[in-house]
């Protein structure tokens, strides 16, 4: 397949996943804003959402004041924000349009409808749309795109590149969500284990549609070790770092089999998966959660760069 | 001045044979059904994402062109004549191209002035002396035709570079078959769906000299921002070939390669949908980001074929157009089956004088213009418009040609309150490779505004399905 085609599929998947992450972040912000602010963390709960999305600087430049309405506009509608839901959906649809013939009509319809619908949102009076409408719409839409691909796309190399994109983006986003909760929301160690802390952890799980799954899996108190185990190491958790990396690994292996040769990308992902699978929660706390996550985000970016150099820029011989 | 327009459906009160049954079909269609079908058609077009603009018209890329459900019909006999005439013309145009980039016999024989050929902006010195595979420069020839009477067809212009619109020919048919299957059972309508397969065969048949094994064909597009992008991806999909951009290709050694996830793959035939000037920054415009550096060298040495060949544009220039009937006689030794519209060249002083004296009855066009812009339709122009245009002609007579106002035939068309005649033209797509082939059909464009003779989509034109009845 053309390298450019593979690249567009890869990015289409990443943007869809990113749109979803943003919607989930908005939900975290909205719920956290419902409880009394305890200074010492960031100025407001919304601030932390902006930090987590990685788009805080652009926001301050454009809006200055951190109020819910502005954050919502910035993270959902604003095309000046390259990772707003609207930007991600248009990007994904543009990527899809470029490789239109590599998509089934269901996948294309899902993308194209998402694009029309978000434009219609933009024309609707804002007081008539609630934040939960927006995040629910996003979760539904991204699920539809992914589900259509799962149900209808040919299982060829294009399918693998799409899924590598999904998994790498998901690994990155879980790591960021976790990092912001632990590091940005609560810079003071004394909060860890307090009631507020638990409330916010629960919100995080809720935003990942995982709070009930968590209860089923662990039961009892929500403690940092359980959370970290669930979101980093648990293979049963659909958004855990290990699950995401193993997903990427599986599709890289399929590629290697199909193409009849293995590359640097396969060995790199295998090393990462192996290392993660060997780790315990204690190892992670010993390293420091933030330090561990920072390293993980870097490693994932490194893997994405290798995938790029190996398959997507067409320079490989 | 009342002009008697040829109505393709009615001969007086009687329905002409090819349209048999359609008059009753349209009259018996309840208005609700018609509205329903019309919105169904629009939804289908929007859903498949078909957007389009005829070569050089520009326009916003996400625009739909109005689709009229009333088909335009030709009898088998009418088509036989068109078929022969179009193929003849496509052969002559290609012979001309090989000649002017080679020995230039037609110029030496004094049949076409050297100035118009070698001094033409579209004449490409970079391809002089090249004889492309099978001696074909223009592989897809779009010939724009108008009709003025039962037997009277005229060629309005030739398109030898990359005529667009063929996806509309195919999609219009798909949509008509889906919406009105009954009509297709009643009437025997020749299918057009083989076009992509024939196009692929045509392109494969002109593989370059150095090609080994099955030729790899690709379509080269300027990218998804181009107004005809839908058509590029549609054709690639239908033919089962890769749709590439300039950045996907590179030249190494004596060949052209494309970048794939499994490493470089050699490319043999490029059906390009970008202009000559952008093909190769080393040979043409140095600022082109759309092309492939070094491509022309590979082309010259027989490592790749480019369709249509660079330089093909010199044959479809409006100044050369006048000489096409002579080309048919000169190269094929045949009489032309299709006539040109009589044309006055303002470059010639006596003809210019005639044009200026009769502006109110003529259509005046710029030699390099297209899309219905920069032209004067005399009978519809005000006195001020005419005198302003006369000044432009006097300033630069070489830039203008004039033609009589043609009484374009009309075809019944759905309008707000029922069915009414509207003016139409026709663009069939002739494929030239090892063989010369033409699918029975083409793109019918219709001027939707009452009385309008301008069929261009940018100026209120729409499209129709074009039927050729089977023998």
Automatic annotation (TrEMBL), chain A:
DUF403 domain mapped to chain residues: 1-312
Pfam families documented for this protein: Alpha-E
UniProt xrefs under InterPro entries: ATP-dep_Glu-Cys_Ligase-2, DUF403
Name of this protein: Uncharacterized conserved protein, Alpha-E superfamily
Automatic annotation (TrEMBL), chain B:
InterPro entries (UniProt xref): ATP-dep_Glu-Cys_Ligase-2 (IPR051680), CP_ATPgrasp_2 (IPR025841), UCP005522 (IPR016450)
UniProt superkingdom: Bacteria
Occurrences of domain Circularly permuted ATP-grasp type (ranges): 71-447
Spans traversing the lipid bilayer: none
Classification via PANTHER family: BLR5612 PROTEIN (PTHR34595), SLL1039 PROTEIN (PTHR34595:SF7)
Protein name, UniProt field: Uncharacterized conserved protein, circularly permuted ATPgrasp superfamily
Species assigned in the record: Tranquillimonas rosea
């Amino acid at each position: 397949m053309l390298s450019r085609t593979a690249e567009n599929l890869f990015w289409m998947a990443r943007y869809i996943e990113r749109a979803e992450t943003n919607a989930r972040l908005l939900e975290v912000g909205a719920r956290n804003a419902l409880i009394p602010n305890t200074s010492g963390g960031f100025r407001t709960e919304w601030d932390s959402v902006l930090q987590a999305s990685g788009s805080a600087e652009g926001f301050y430049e454009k809006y200055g004041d951190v109020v819910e309405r502005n954050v919502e506009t910035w993270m959902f509608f604003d095309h000046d924000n390259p990772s707003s839901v609207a930007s991600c959906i248009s990007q994904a649809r543009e990527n899809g349009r470029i490789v239109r013939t590599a998509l089934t009509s269901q996948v294309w319809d899902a993308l194209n409808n998402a694009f029309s619908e978000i434009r219609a949102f933009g024309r609707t009076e804002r007081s008539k749309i609630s934040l939960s409408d927006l995040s629910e719409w996003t979760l539904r839409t991204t699920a539809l795109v992914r589900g259509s691909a799962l149900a209808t796309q040919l299982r060829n190399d294009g399918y693998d590149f799409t899924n590598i994109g999904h998994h790498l983006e998901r690994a990155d986003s879980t790591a960021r969500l976790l990092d912001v909760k632990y590091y940005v929301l609560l810079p003071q160690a004394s909060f860890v284990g307090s009631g507020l802390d638990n409330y916010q952890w629960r919100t995080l799980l809720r935003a990942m549609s995982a709070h009930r799954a968590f209860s089923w899996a662990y039961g009892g108190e929500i403690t940092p070790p359980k959370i970290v185990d669930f979101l980093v190491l648990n293979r049963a958790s659909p958004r855990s770092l290990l699950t995401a990396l193993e997903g990427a690994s599986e599709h890289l292996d399929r590629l290697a089999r199909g193409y009849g040769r293995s590359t640097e990308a396969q060995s790199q992902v295998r090393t990462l998966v192996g290392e993660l699978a060997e780790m315990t929660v204690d190892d992670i706390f010993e390293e420091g959660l933030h330090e561990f996550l920072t390293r993980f985000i870097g490693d994932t970016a490194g893997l994405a760069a290798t995938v790029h150099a190996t398959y997507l820029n067409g320079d490989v011989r | 001045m009342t002009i008697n327009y040829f109505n393709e459906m009615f001969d007086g009160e009687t329905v002409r044979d090819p349209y048999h049954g359609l008059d009753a079909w349209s009259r018996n269609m309840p208005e609700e059904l018609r509205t329903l079908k019309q919105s169904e058609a629009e939804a289908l077009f929007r859903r498949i994402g078909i957007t389009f603009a005829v070569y050089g018209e520009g326009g916003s890329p996400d625009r739909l062109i109005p689709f009229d459900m009333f088909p335009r019909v030709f009898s088998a006999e009418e088509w036989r004549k068109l078929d022969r005439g179009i193929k003849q013309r496509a052969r002559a145009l290609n012979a001309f191209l090989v000649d002017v980039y080679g020995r230039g016999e037609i110029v030496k024989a004094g049949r076409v002035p050297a100035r118009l050929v070698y001094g033409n902006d579209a004449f490409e010195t970079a391809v002089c002396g090249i004889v492309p595979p099978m001696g074909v420069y223009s592989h897809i020839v779009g010939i724009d035709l108008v009709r003025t009477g039962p037997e009277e067809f005229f060629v309005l212009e030739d398109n030898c570079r990359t005529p667009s619109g063929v996806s509309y020919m195919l999609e219009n048919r798909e949509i008509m078959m889906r919406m009105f299957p009954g009509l297709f059972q009643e009437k025997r309508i020749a299918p057009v769906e083989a076009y992509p397969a024939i196009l692929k065969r045509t392109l494969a048949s002109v593989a370059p000299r150095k090609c080994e094994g099955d030729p790899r064909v690709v379509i080269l597009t300027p990218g998804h921002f181009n107004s005809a992008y839908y058509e590029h991806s549609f054709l690639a999909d239908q033919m089962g070939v890769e749709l590439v951009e300039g950045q996907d290709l590179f030249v190494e050694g004596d060949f052209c390669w494309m970048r794939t996830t499994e490493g470089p793959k050699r490319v043999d035939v490029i059906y390009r949908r970008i202009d000559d000037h952008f093909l190769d920054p080393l040979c043409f415009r140095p600022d082109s980001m759309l092309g492939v550096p070094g491509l022309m060298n590979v082309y010259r040495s027989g490592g790749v074929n480019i369709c249509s060949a660079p330089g093909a544009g010199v044959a479809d220039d409006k100044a050369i157009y006048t000489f096409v009937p002579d080309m048919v006689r000169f190269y094929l030794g045949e009489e032309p089956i299709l006539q040109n519209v009589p044309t006055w060249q303002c470059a010639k002083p006596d003809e210019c004088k005639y044009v200026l004296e009769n502006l109110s009855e003529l259509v005046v066009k710029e030699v390099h213009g297209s899309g219905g812009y920069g032209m004067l339709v005399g009978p519809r122009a005000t006195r001020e418009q005419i005198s302003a245009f006369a000044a432009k002609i006097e300033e630069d007579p070489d830039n203008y040609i004039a033609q009589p106002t043609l009484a374009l035939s009309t075809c019944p068309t759905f309008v707000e309150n029922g069915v009414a005649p509207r003016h139409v033209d026709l663009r069939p797509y002739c494929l030239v490779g090892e063989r010369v082939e033409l699918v029975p059909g083409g793109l019918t464009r219709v001027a939707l505004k009452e009385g309008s003779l301008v069929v261009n989509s940018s100026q209120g034109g729409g499209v129709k399905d074009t039927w050729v009845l089977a023998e």
